[in-house]
Amino acid sequence: MSMINYASREINCKIVYYGPGLGGKTTNLEHVYAKTKPDTRGKLISLATETERTLFFDFLPVDLGTIRGFKTRFHLYTVPGQVYYNASRKLILKGVDGLVFVADSQVERMEANQESMQNLYDNMSEYGYDITKLPFVLQYNKRDLPNAASVQQLQAALNPGWEVHETARQRLTPDPDHPNETLVEQLSTGEWVERVPYFEGVAVTGDGVFDTLKAVSKLVLKTLA
Amino acid sequence: MAASSSWAFTPEDSTAIADVLERLLAASNARCALLVDRSGQLVATAGEPMDFDPTAFATLTAADFSANDQLARLVGEREFGTLVHQGEKESMVLADVARRVILVALFDQRTTLGLVRLKLKDSVVDLTRLFDVIFSRSADVGVGRPSILSGAHDEIDELFS
Ligand SMILES: Nc1nc2c(ncn2[C@@H]2O[C@H](COP(=O)(O)OP(=O)(O)O)[C@@H](O)[C@H]2O)c(=O)[nH]1
Ligand SMILES: [Mg+2]
C-alpha cells in the first residue's frame, strides 16, 4: 500500500521479490545496493541464518528520483524461498505494491519455480489481493548457466497469461522490451490473454537487475497516475 | 481489493500526529517516539534525535509486530496489543493503533515502564481517532487515488528512460 506524505513530500512504495530458494533474490538486492549512491539508499538489512540463507527477509530502501516535487522511495523486500518459511513469506506480502518473481532458469529448478509461483498466488488470494491487478514482473535469472531452460519453456511454464475479461483492455499490446512479442493478445480460440513483462537476468553480474527494478517501479507509479 | 491501494497524509495530519507524539513524550518522559505502518513504512518521529537508521528501525518494528501477531494466534490470543523490549539502558514499548499502525516509545532510566505504558494508552486513543479519519478519507477517493501523480504518465516514463 503506497503511502504519500505531503509534509515530507515523499511517496513510499513496497516491492517484494518472490521466488524459489537460491534463485537469486538476495543477489538482486545486493547488486542494487552496490550500484546506487549512498545518499539515495539506506542500509541493506538481512535477517539470515548463520549459513546465510534468508530467514525472514532482506530489506533495502532506495530512492528512484523525484516526480512533481515528491521523492519516490521504494522499499525492496525479498522473501525466504524455503518451503517451510511460508509464515514469514506471507507477512512480507502485507501491503505490497509491486511484485518481482525471480525464477531460477535451470531446468532442474522448473518444478521449484512452479511451486513458488503457486504459493505466491495462494498467499496473495488469502490476503484478498488480486494478483492480476498488481504491478508484476518476472525475471528469468541465471541465464549464464549451461543448463538454463529456454525463455520459451519458462514463459510456457510460468507466464502462460491470464484471461482478460474487461473489453477495454482487450487490445493487442506489444511487449516494449521484446520485439515481435506481445503482452496482451487474442489466442486462436478467441480468448484474450495478458502476460506479465519478463526480463532475462544474471544477477551475479547485475545483468537485468535494474531493468527489472525499473519496470516494476514504473508500473507501481503508474497505478497512482 | 487491489493491493496497491494507497493512503495519504496532508500537512495537517502530520501536525496532528506530531502533537500527539509530543504530548506523549512530555507526559511520559520517554526519549523518542516513532509511528510505523504495518507494512513497515515510517510515518512520523518525535523527540531526541535517533542515533540509528529510522527506516531500518521501522521495517524491523513491523516485522517484529507481525511475527508476534502470529505467535499470539498460535497460543490462542487474538493479538498481543502491546510489546515490551527491555534492555540494560534502553527499552521500548510498542502498541497497536487501529490495526494499521504501530506506536513505539523508546525510553531509558529517566522514566519507568509503568508510566510510559500508561501514557501510551492515551496516545493510542488519540491516534486511533486520527487514523480513522485519514483512512476513511483515503477510502473515499475511489481506490484512494492521490491527485499528485494524476496525469503524470509522461513524467514517469521520463524518470525511467
Ligand atoms: N550462475 C549464477 N549464479 C547466481 C545468479 N544469481 C544468483 N546466483 C547464485 O545463486 C545462489 C543463491 O542466490 P541468492 O541471491 O542467495 O538466492 P535467494 O535464495 O533467491 O535469495 C548464490 O550462490 C548466488 O551467487 C546468476 O545469475 N547466475
Ligand atoms: Mg535470499
Structural topology:
The complex is a heterodimer of chains A (225) and B (161).
Chain A: E1 2-5, E2 10-18, H1 25-35, E3 45-48, E4 54-67, E5 70-78, H2 86-92, E6 98-104, H3 110-126, E7 136-141, H4 151-158, E8 162-163, E9 173-174, E10 182-186, E11 192-194, E12 198-200, H5 209-223
Chain B: E1 6-9, H1 11-28, E2 32-37, E3 42-47, H2 54-74, E4 82-86, E5 91-97, E6 101-107, H3 113-140, H4 153-159
Antiparallel strand pairs in B: 2-3, 2-6, 4-5, 5-6
Bound molecules: guanosine-5'-diphosphate and magnesium ion (MG).
Magnesium ion is lined by residues 25-26, 54, 78 of chain A.
Explain the overall architecture:
The complex is a heterodimer of chains A (225) and B (161). Chain A is α/β, with parallel strands linked by helices and 225 residues long. Chain A folds into two domains: 3-159 and 196-224, 3-Layer(aba) Sandwich (Rossmann fold), CATH 3.40.50.300; 162-195, no CATH class. Chain A is 26% helix and 30% strand. Chain A contains five helices and twelve strands. The two termini of chain A are 15 Å apart. In chain B, helix 1 runs antiparallel to helix 3 (113-140). The mean pLDDT of chain B is 87. In chain B, strands 3-2-6-5-4 form a five-stranded antiparallel β-sheet, with helices on both faces. Chain B has a single domain, classed as 2-Layer Sandwich (Beta-Lactamase), CATH 3.30.450.30. With 161 residues, chain B is of the alpha+beta class. Chain B starts with 5 loop residues before the first strand and ends with a helix. In chain B, a hairpin with a 4-residue loop joins strand 2 and strand 3. Chain B contains four helices and six strands. Chains A and B meet through strand 1, strand 2, strand 4, strand 5 and helix 2 of A and strand 1, helix 1, helix 2 and helix 4 of B. Strand 1 of chain A pairs parallel with strand 1 of chain B. The structure holds guanosine-5'-diphosphate and magnesium ion. Residues 19, 21-27, 54, 78, 81, 102, 141-142, 144-145, 202-204 of chain A line the site of guanosine-5'-diphosphate.
